[in-house]
Amino acid sequence: MADYILVIGYGDAGHEAVNAVLEAQPDARLTVLDTDFVAVAEAAANGAVAVVGDGRDRCALDEASVDAADRVFITVPDDLASFLVMRAVRTMNPDAVIVVVIRDQENHGLFDSYDVTSVHIKRPPT
What is the pTM assigned to this prediction? Predict the structure, then answer.
């Protein structure tokens, strides 16, 4: 059975994550969760199941089937929001591989004690 991958946040980093997943695993079951209707429409056009909602909201995470996700990419543009999303995801799916993209390296330590598989720092374009 194909991996189920959830991407929370469909800005630049989320779009890159979806493209990388689709390139590496064209048969992956992919869902995008975002608060922006336009972003959700773009994700659907890119081949993902798209859900409108906030990753900090348990109802939105339920609708996106976070409990079934093998991997979760958190790519929201605010590090504190990423932390809150990660905590919500971890409580609803203790076994998922979680990858978080953060903006400020000083916030890296927030994620160290929460069993996050990988934290990536998004550098601003030069």
Answer: 0.90
